[in-house]
Design brief:
The chain has helices at about 1-55, 60-75, 80-100, 105-110, 110-145, 150-155, 170-175, 180-184. By secondary structure, it is mainly alpha-helical. The longest helix is centred in the N-terminal third of the chain and has 53 residues, at about 1-55. The radius of gyration is 23 Å and the shape is elongated.
């Protein structure tokens, strides 16, 4: 009788660990799907932004082509989560370059379409930032679960692997030199 009770307790523990791992994996997938939706919204804004600034920014043609190319890479079906994260970093950097370049064109800066696009992009960037924080927390919980004893044993049997978190780029880590911005 005691052996049956011990066996039942062990089975319950294994089932709880299994369910916990599956829940953490699904949480990561669910939050990443939310990030995907916001990134898609950003990708839909990019053609409007590029077409709005294209005629003014002939000198920054390379930036516009880079953003367009990165967008088309990000829109390809079947790219991995890691590729999406890498492309997101590049697009964030390229969009920042466009916004800095817009400041050099007074007519463009005063254009109502550009102002609307800048506001919309700022809102989307805030949504992406919030979704990244939620994703990183879910990934940290998931990675802890698949690496800690005893759930790591079950995670290895389920072939669960570490997930990559969103990290900021080196440019985003630098302090903004406000004085230099006013000198331009």
């Amino acid at each position: 009788m005691t052996a049956l009770i011990i066996l039942a307790v062990v089975i319950v523990i294994i089932v709880l660990m299994y369910n916990s791992l599956v829940a953490k994996k699904n949480q990561v997938d669910n939050i990443f799907a939310g990030i995907d939706a916001v990134l898609k919204k950003r990708y839909n804004l990019i053609p409007n932004l590029v077409s709005s600034v294209q005629q003014y920014m002939q000198h920054e043609r390379g930036i516009l082509e880079k953003v367009t190319e990165l967008r088309s890479q990000a829109m390809k079906p079947g790219i991995s989560d890691e590729q999406k994260i890498a492309l997101d970093k590049q697009i964030t950097s390229a969009l920042g370059s466009i916004m800095v370049a817009v400041e050099s064109y007074p007519e463009l800066k005063a254009n109502t379409n550009i102002m609307h696009l800048q506001r919309t992009l700022s809102e989307v960037e805030a949504q992406i930032s919030a979704a990244r924080r939620a994703y990183n927390q879910a990934v940290t919980d998931y990675n802890n679960a698949i690496e800690m004893i005893p759930t790591n044993i079950l995670a290895n049997m389920m072939n669960y692997r570490r997930k990559q978190v969103f990290e900021i780029t080196e440019d985003e880590r630098k302090n903004v030199d406000v004085g230099a911005l006013f000198k331009q």
